[in-house]
Amino acid sequence: MRTISDTIEKFLLDNFSNEELELSRNELADFFGCVPSQINYVLSTRFTLDKGYIVDSQRGGGGYVKIKKINIDDKFKDIIFERIGNNIDYNSACCILDNLCRNGKISEEQKVCITSAIEPKALKTPFLIENDLRAKILKNILYKIYN
Amino acid sequence: MRTISDTIEKFLLDNFSNEELELSRNELADFFGCVPSQINYVLSTRFTLDKGYIVDSQRGGGGYVKIKKINIDDKFKDIIFERIGNNIDYNSACCILDNLCRNGKISEEQKVCITSAIEPKALKTPFLIENDLRAKILKNILYKIYN
DNA sequence: ATATAACAAAAGTCAAAGATAGTCAAATTA
DNA sequence: TAATTTGACTATCTTTGACTTTTGTTATAT
Question: Which of A126, B2, B27, B57 would be B65's cystine partner, CB 3.0–4.6 Å?
Fold first, then answer.
């Protein structure tokens, strides 16, 4: 544990009680004598989806930051990381969804819904980011389903 | 419950007896030691149509605020009719029908029937009113089915 | 009696102030 | 060079209060 970020990470991990941890960004920053955005840095580098965490937050009075640990089986993780990656075309995505559906990981209804969300026409922008967007959306939905 | 708004929301939810709750805005504000408009804030952020509530009120002497929990079907109807609006293209209509069917709101048979009724070739006229016609017909049929 | 005016008793609106959290890039450090 | 630290600026949610609108009641004039 060398950096402030490492210290904060350890502190958070130590205080994980039951798969979920809630905190105040400003208070935590105060506690460690750092600027609030340092907390964001820790969250975005240490508590990422890829490492099995979902971060949820709210601004304004009574605001908070929640960190949730998610549990998914390794096979599923494999699919997420190796097959989806950081960008994926529509047809490949459909194949994955078909597979998940056949294996009972998602329902037919869910498949339809997800498919609609990642259809090319839904992701058309003036920029060349369709496949990147699709990968992010797809991973996010699947994580939510399995959370 | 971290904010006053959250507390008031919980209080209201806890006091929901039979699908409807009537209250005095000023008395409630007094009870929680907040300004009356705070009640409006809670109502407009926590008891929205989206979340299945309808808020009704009256000013003046004997004024009141009523919160009604609407059943899913009512909510569903509202959303559907709002989405159809005064004109709708064939594909959107089909999406809605697919949705209704998937959600068990209409049968497969009804879907086939309605679809035939609003097909482009069925609504061809020399005027540019295809989408307007379709909306009227669609709403009329659904209205019949639901009432 | 009836219409009207004045007042009182609600609820509504809206914008400012307060309280958090997020973003992004420059500066620093390992 | 890459990761970390910092802070100025932004976005969002909540709280508050002054001002407005609506409704019911009571007094007054006809």
Answer: B57
- The whole-chain average pLDDT of chain B stands at 80
Size of interface A-B (CB pairs under 8 A): 8
- Chain A partners of B6 at a C-beta cutoff of 8 Å? 62
- Is the alpha carbon torsion for A32, A34, A36, A42 positive or negative? negative
Nucleic strand C under 7 Å from the C-beta of A99: no
Taking the domains of chain B in order of start, what are their residue ranges? 4-69, 74-146
The CATH code of domain A4-69 reads: 3.30.56.130
The C-alpha of A25 sits at a distance from chain B's nearest C-alpha, in angstroms, of: 15
- Segment A14-41 shows an average pLDDT of 94
Residue-level pLDDT at B51: 77
- Model confidence pLDDT, tens digit, residues A79-97: 666 677 777 888 888 888 8
CA of B60 to C1' of C3 (A): 21
Nearest nt by C1' to B36 Cα: C11
Which among A61, A109, A112 has the least Cβ separation from residue B3?
A61
Written as six digits, the tokens of A23 are: 């905190």
* Statement: the pTM of the whole predicted model exceeds 0.70: no
The H helix count followed by the E strand count for chain B is 7, 3
Phi, psi of A13 (to 5 degrees): -60, -40
Lowest-pLDDT range of A43-47, A77-81, B79-83, B126-130: B126-130
CATH architecture of the domain with residue range A74-146: Orthogonal Bundle (1.10)
CA of A143 to C1' of D14 (A): 31
Q: Is the separation of the CB atoms in B74 and B60 below 8 Å?
A: no
Output the CA torsion sign for B119, B122, B124, B125. Answer: negative
